[in-house]
Amino acid sequence: MKLKVGIFGLTSCAGDQLTILNCEEELLEIFEALDIRVFSMASSGQDFGMLDIAFVEGAVVTEEDIEVLHHIRKNSRRVVAIGTCAASGGVATGKEIFGSREAYAAVYGDTIINVTPLKKAYPLDYYIEVDYTIRGCPIRESEVIYYFKKFATMDPAKNEVLALPIDRG
Can you tell me the distance from the alpha carbon of 44 to that of 51, in angstroms, rounded to the nearest whole number? Predict the structure, then answer.
């Protein structure tokens, strides 16, 4: 039976989801082994039911991010934080250094966006229990393939450090 998988994005550049899509040659093999129920970047449907694994990228920056994240955790056996933003807050934490108003102006200029950000950006594990973390900005394609195959064939021990050959090329 195929594992039911969701790939989600909170506040981020979506670079980690794009990395997954860039695994073009391997995607068919991956999708045959896993039942991808939702993929934020590749589909508009968000009604996913219960998942075996949820891959989540992005920092928690808005109240909506908190709600979505709690919904994902409640409906997923395992949650994998993917990328620097999900693991540590990433570049969104820059507003703590420069100040929210200055950071907002640097990114959006005079554009008004109807979103109330939190005072601080947080990694996923500030709000929910995270079972695994894949670090990087963006994550590497070889890691994406490795972990998707790993989850499709076995259930790694929680927070196990999964060995990945180092590719220096």
Answer: 17
